[in-house]
Every structure is written in structure tokens, then in C-alpha cells.
Amino acid sequence: MRVSKQDEFLALYEPIHDRFEGFCRARVYGDMEYRDLINETLLVAFDKFETLRSKEAFLSFLFSISVRILSNNNIKKKERPLSKEDNINQLNDTESSGEVTTDIQFLYQAMSELNDEQRECIILFEISGFSIKEIAGIQNASESSVKQRLRRARIKLSQLMNFEAVTKTGDDHE
């Protein structure tokens, strides 16, 4: 019996849904709603499913499409800076304390300061749990380039977060 395109697509997608959702949640912060990115990506991926060369590359296929959609979205928006209200409205975690929510907001603000390759790399490694080798395949880069991006992203995030902590502490005393 012939497996339908939809069944084959779903069979590939279901096991990776959580990893893909985690990537989208982290990657879109402030750019668009993560569910919209997932939906748009899946629509495009389903439409272009026949172009997928290897079933093992399905997750990479989805990442590539989602990054392209985000890029096109940013071009359309002319990359307007986010207001603090936009950032706060993106935080939908009602179980976190105010302090944790603030820390998450600072982290996402700091991550927005990274270049796209570094931000994507840190999200894939630290949040989505991909290996250096897997990220190299997704980003079409060498493993040493991925390691360098991670290193630079961590250094910049550390600097930005320390600055935020100093600024946050300084605000408390005024």
C-alpha cells in the first residue's frame, strides 16, 4: 500500500516536533509569534516536500525554511526595534516568578544582539540540544566554525548579561 505524502510528512515530523518547537520559540523572540513560524514553515515544507533529498535531513530542511521565513519577515518589518512592551508580551510563562521572567527577558534581549549565525548556533546547541556536528550540517559550516560561533556568542552574551546585571543593580539603588 502506498504511503500518502501527508502520512510520510507526519511520520518524519512527529518525532522532532519538540526540538523544532524549541528552536522556533527561541529563534523568533520579538520577531513574530513562534506558532506562526511553525505553521508557515510546515506549510512551505509540505509544499516542497518532494525536494527533500534525504529523510535524515528533514529537521535541517525545516530549520532552513524557518530561518528564511524569519529573514523575509524582518525585511518586511524593516527591522523596527522592539519596545519593552513587545518583549514583555512575548513572555507567556505564567508559572515563572517575576524575577525569572525578567532574567529571561534580559537573556532574549542579549541574544538579539548576536549576529544571526551566532544566535542560531547558540539556540541549536544550548536550547535545542544539537551536537556540534549536527549544527555544522544545519549551518553548512565546518565544526571549527560552529565552535568559534558558540565561543563568541557565549563571550558576548556574558558581557551583555553582566552589563545588564550591573545596570539592573544600579537601577535598584536610585
In the CATH hierarchy, what is the class of the largest domain?
A: Mainly Alpha
CATH superfamily of the largest domain: Winged helix-like DNA-binding domain superfamily/Winged helix DNA-binding domain
Question: Number of helical segments?
Answer: 9
What string, H for helix and E for strand, traces the elements in order? HHHHHHHHH
User: Which assembly state applies to the chains in this document?
Assistant: single chain
Instruction: Report the portion of residues in β strands.
Output: under 5%
| CATH architecture term of the largest domain | Orthogonal Bundle
* Cα Rg: 18 Å
The name of the CATH topology of the largest domain is: Arc Repressor Mutant, subunit A
What do you see in this structure?
- The protein is mainly alpha-helical and 174 residues long.
- The protein has two domains: 1-80; 87-174, Winged helix-like DNA-binding domain superfamily/Winged helix DNA-binding domain (Arc Repressor Mutant, subunit A).
- It is 73% helix and 0% strand.
- The protein has helices spanning 5-13, 17-27, 34-47, 58-77, 84-90, 98-112, 116-127, 132-139, 143-173.
- The longest helix is centred in the C-terminal third of the chain and has 31 residues, at 143-173.
